[in-house]
C-alpha cells in the first residue's frame, strides 16, 4: 500500500484505510461518519451489509437459524453500498432497504446470519471490492466487527470502540426512538454474546488497535481523538 501519495481532491493519503470495530451502540457509526466527513474520506458500514443480507433472507422465507439453508442462498442477493459519509445508502437488488434493515426483525436475526462462514466470505469479497475502488483515489473509514482483524488487517489506523452497556442502550434507544431501555440493553448484549462467541471472525480487538472507551466522551471528542490518531499515522508514514 502506498502511504506517500496524497489525493489532490482531499489532501489525505491515497490508500488510507481506517478500521473502526466495536460493539453495537459504542458510537461506531457516528464516529466513523464524522471522521470520514472531517477528513474528506469515503465510508463503508459493513454492518449494513450483514443487515441487508438478513433482510433478504427473511423476505425469501429462509430459516435464519438453519446455517445450511443460509449458506445455500447467500450468494444470490446483489448488495450495493453507497460510500458518501453524509448520505450512505444500501440497496438489495436495486431496492433501497435503509429503513427496513434497522427494524426488530432484522435486529433479532442478524447475529445468527453473520455467524455463517459462507455469508462472511461473500460479504468480505464485496467489502474488499469497495475498499479497493475507494482507496485508489483517496481513503475510506470502514466500520464493523472484524475490519482490523480480517477485512483490512494492514490498515494503518485501527480503532476499537466500547462503552458501558447502559450508555449504549441509551444511545441506541434514542437513535431508534424507543423507550424500553431494559429491552434495548438486553438486545444489544444478546448480539454481543453471539458476535464475540462465533467461530468465524468474532468481534475481537485487532492487533495494533487503539481502544477508546467512549462512555465519558461526547461524539465530537471521540471524532477528535480518532482524527488525531490519523494525523499521527500519517506523520509516521
Ligand atoms: O454494526 P451493526 O449493529 O449494524 O451490525 C449488525 C450485525 O452485523 C452485528 O450484530 C454483527 C454483524 N457484523 C459482523 O458480524 N461483522 C461486521 N464486520 C459487521 C457487522
Describe this structure in a few short sentences:
This protein is an alpha/beta fold and about 240 residues long. It contains 9 helices and 8 strands.
Task: Write a concise keyword list for the protein shown above.
237 residues, alpha/beta, Rossmann fold, five-stranded parallel beta sheet, three-stranded antiparallel beta sheet, 9 helices, 49% helix, binds 2'-deoxycytidine-5'-monophosphate
Specify the helix fraction band.
40-55%
Structure class: alpha/beta
N-to-C SSE string, H for helix and E for strand: EHEHHEEEHHEHEHHEH
What is the arithmetic mean of pLDDT? 91
Question: Which blocks of ≥5 consecutive residues have pLDDT under 50?
Answer: none
Q: Approximately how much beta-strand content do the residues carry?
A: 5-15%
CATH second-level architecture:
3-Layer(aba) Sandwich
Taking all Cα atoms into account, the compactness measure Rg is 17 Å
Distance between the termini: 11 Å
CATH class categorisation: Alpha Beta
Distinct small molecules bound, one entry per kind: 2'-deoxycytidine-5'-monophosphate
List the strand order in the largest sheet.
2-6-1-7-8
Count of alpha/pi helices: 9
CATH fold node name: Rossmann fold
Quick one: biggest sheet? 5 strands, parallel
Number of domains: 1
Quaternary organisation of the protein chains: single chain
- Number of extended strands: 8
CATH superfamily name?
P-loop containing nucleotide triphosphate hydrolases
Please state the overall shape, judged from the principal axes of the Cα atoms. globular
